C-alpha cells in the first residue's frame, strides 16, 4: 500500500472512530454543543470550510483514480494477457484487488466524511432545538403561572365583590329599616302635631269663650254698679 492510500486508510479509521463517538448515546447533544463552542473551533472556523471541501476534492480524485484502476484491470485486455501468462494473471488480480480495495477505502472515506459533518450539524441543531424548547417550556410555565395568578386574583376580586355586595345589601336593608322607623316616627310626630294643634285650637276657643263671658260679666257688673249708685242718689 502506497503512502497516500495508507493515509486515506488511517483517515477512514479516524472517521469511523469519530462517527462512533458522535453516535454514543451517553453524550447528550447539549454536551456536544458545549464542546463545539470551545475556542479552538472558533479559531479553526475560518479554515474549516476550505479544509472540508479540500478533503472532499482529494477523496473524489482518489475515488476516481481507484475507479479508473478497477476499470483498467477488469477490462478484456489484461484478462487476455493473464490467460496467456500465469504470472501475469496473478499480477493482474493483485492489481485489481488493490484497485478495488482503494476504491472502497476512498468511497467509504468520502461517505463518512460527509456523514460526520451531517451528524455534527444535526447534533448542534438538536441542542439548539432543545434549548429553544426549554425556553419555550419556561415561557409556557410562566404563562401558566401568570394565568393561575390571574385566575386566583379574579376569584379573590369576585369573592371580595360578593362580600362587598353582601355588606351593601345588609347596609341597604338596615338603612331601609331605619327609613321605615323614621317614617313611623315622623307619622307619629305628625299625629302628635295635629293633636296638639287641635288642643291649641280648643284652648283658643275656650279662651275666647272665657273672654266673652268675662266681658259679659264685666258689663253686668258695671250695670249693677250704676244701678246701685242711682238708688243711692234717690235715697239721699
TrEMBL record:
Residues 1-133 form the BAP29/BAP31 transmembrane domain. One of its GO terms (cellular component) is endoplasmic reticulum membrane. Gene3D superfamilies: 1.20.5.110. Keywords: Apoptosis, Coiled coil, Endoplasmic reticulum, ER-Golgi transport, Membrane, Protein transport, Transmembrane, Transmembrane helix, Transport. It is found in: Endoplasmic reticulum membrane. Residues 178-235 form the Bap31/Bap29 cytoplasmic coiled-coil domain. It comes from the Eukaryota. The keyword Chaperone does not apply. It is a multi-pass membrane protein. Residues 172-227 form a coiled coil. The chain crosses the membrane at residues 7-27, 47-67, 103-120. GO terms for biological process: apoptotic process; endoplasmic reticulum to Golgi vesicle-mediated transport; intracellular protein transport; protein localization to endoplasmic reticulum exit site. InterPro entries: BAP29/BAP31 (IPR008417), BAP29/BAP31_N (IPR040463), Bap31/Bap29_C (IPR041672). Belongs to the BCAP29/BCAP31 family. May play a role in anterograde transport of membrane proteins from the endoplasmic reticulum to the Golgi. This is Endoplasmic reticulum transmembrane protein. The gene is LOC102198871.
